């Protein structure tokens, strides 16, 4: 089976970190999300992945030189300055995908432990044109919602229904199998939305099915969800691997420290701290519930709690970074600064004064 990975969106809710990398390259416990996706595809006997990108995303992904796990990787780029939405890129990749067999489509910003094979089986049994993996969530209004009949045929598909109006709690997991017949439904060279234009048509024609899954599923689209994804994985991986760290500092598990991390004395790392490659932590620093991207420097006596710190950022001494804060790549936070809650700092920005209310500083 081939897989098309949709990875050309703009990740607006993860700004400013998504200004300098696509969502699919955000590190999840120190590995880019796309790397986790490749691994899962390979485990499910997918032979080839086609990345539906834009030119910028393509460049970023190629820079990363990810391990391919035996997958053949191809790129299909939207035309310059013309994002094609979620269905347009499928049509654009028609030649690469071919007409031989059903294929898998994945949103590139989802961390999911699903059996793609099982979804394909359901798809084949039902002779469907589309079969969507469905998850049950508490608040479906931010997602695509499916209304099913008894045989799991999708009667209605509604993208982002208004609050309180969703007919069910079953949502599009951002993973679906489609047959080559799908190409007949999508107009060429145009932005088309799978969720708003194509799925409703397939539902009406009674050729759209749901496959309910119960595996681990997380959308990293918003900062709190991104942190939660890291947290859940830390819990899982910690049970599997039980990393051991030694040094003159305290580790409160679960934590993950990448290569070349240095931590000085009296610092406390964790619980739920992820430190990327080459991170340097001074003395008496406290880090918890946070993800620190590679090559960040954190000065003595600072504390980071519930925050995301972008690549190469530098945090001075006795700085406090509070819940929901995001520090952009290579930003500089001067000594003694307090960033209270939900403060976002743009890449490269220098900050020398306290910021005590939620805002984005560019
Ligand atoms: N190539 C390309 N071009 N890819 C795109 C474009 C585009 O113009 N627009 C979006 N994408 C990619 C994004 O990078 C992302 O991986 C995927 O398509 C979905 O787009 P999002 O912008 O992340 O959509 P969403 O999160 O609001 O909603 C989607 O995901 C939900 C699950 O998380 C929908 O598919 C919902 O129905 C679904 O429930
Ligand atoms: Mg999304």
Count, helices: 7
Please identify which CATH superfamily of the largest domain we are dealing with.
Spore Coat Polysaccharide Biosynthesis Protein SpsA, Chain A
Q: Please mark out the parts with pLDDT under 50 across 5 or more consecutive residues, or reply none.
A: none
Q: Pairing-aware structural class of the strands and helices? A: alpha/beta
Morphology: elongated
Helix share, percent: 10-25%
Q: What is the CATH topology classification name of the largest domain?
A: Spore Coat Polysaccharide Biosynthesis Protein SpsA, Chain A
Structurally, the number of domains stands at: 2
Q: Using the 3D structure, state the CATH architecture of the largest domain.
A: Alpha-Beta Complex
Total E-strand runs: 32
The largest pleated sheet is described as: 7 strands, mixed
| CATH C-level category of the largest domain | Alpha Beta
Question: How large, in whole angstroms, is the Cα Rg?
Answer: 22 Å
Strand order of the largest sheet: 5-4-1-6-11-8-12
Query: Could you report the average pLDDT, rounded to the nearest whole number?
Result: 95
Note the gap between the termini: 45 Å
Report strand %.
25-35%
Bound molecules: guanosine-5'-diphosphate-alpha-D-mannose, magnesium ion
